[in-house]
Amino acid sequence: MTDMYSSSLAGRVLIGLIGSLILAGGANRLRSLSASGAWSAIVMGTCYVALGGPFWFGSLIAFFVSSSLLSKWKKRHRKKRKAEANYAKSGRRDWLQVWANGGLGLLLCGGHALWPHSSWAFAFVGVMAAVNADTWATEIGALSAAAPRSILSGRRVAAGTSGGITPLGSGAALAGAAFIGAVAALLAAAPPAPAGALPGGALLAAAAVAGTAGAFADSLLGATVQAMYRCRVCGSETERAEHCGAAAERVRGFAAMTNDAVNLASSALAGLLAWLIGSLLT
After folding, report:
1. Which of 91, 160, 242, 281 gives 83 a disulfide partner, CB atoms 3.0 to 4.6 angstroms apart?
2. Which CA distances in Å does 277 have to 118, 123, 176, 204?
3. pTM of structure
4. Helix spans in 142-197 (H)
């Protein structure tokens, strides 16, 4: 029995490694991942395949592929490039972004492998829905004809300001969260299915609600505790500690609360909310 399990695990590791090498290598050539991001994606993808079934790594791939394609499609838009100039990170994900977006989901996948239960799957869907919702909101919201407004005061703010939201971006967040829920609902029916009751409607509802809430939590954290800087050269407010080739001055927030830390915190909150929703619906 032990030998059969070891052989099966070794096979999944090999399949995961080969698949991750192909996907991460292609993403690196398309400049969706940096070199460090590609190596992190290889490790992460291999672990997802080894520890989970299609439900887990399929949802991860749905997030990465859809967000990367959306980023590439909008990359040439001048308005988005102007907003992105003040973001901490560009559309090319580095190792920190890879782990901030997929690391918590991998822990949940590992938890399910050790102690199978539907709660892990609902929390996972919430996490992935939140990171997808935030990415879609950022990519599409940057193209809004209406000026973003602060989630705290409701006042108009410059495009690219942390905590700024638009109706277009909010709608994109809901669409991105629901997309992950729909994919997860389809994958939940594929063998080997996650343990416990996972009705498609409950997964979709948990993802849509928790993912959208996570995107708004990201904006709220961005407007309150995320580190924000003022460029000493051009005077613009930015998420970057360095701007225009010079060190920027921190004007608010905590230095440890980087964009990646905010993404991780907001997705964790979404995962908790999705778990609660799943507990009520199943």
Report:
1. 160
2. 12, 9, 18, 11
3. 0.88
4. 167-187
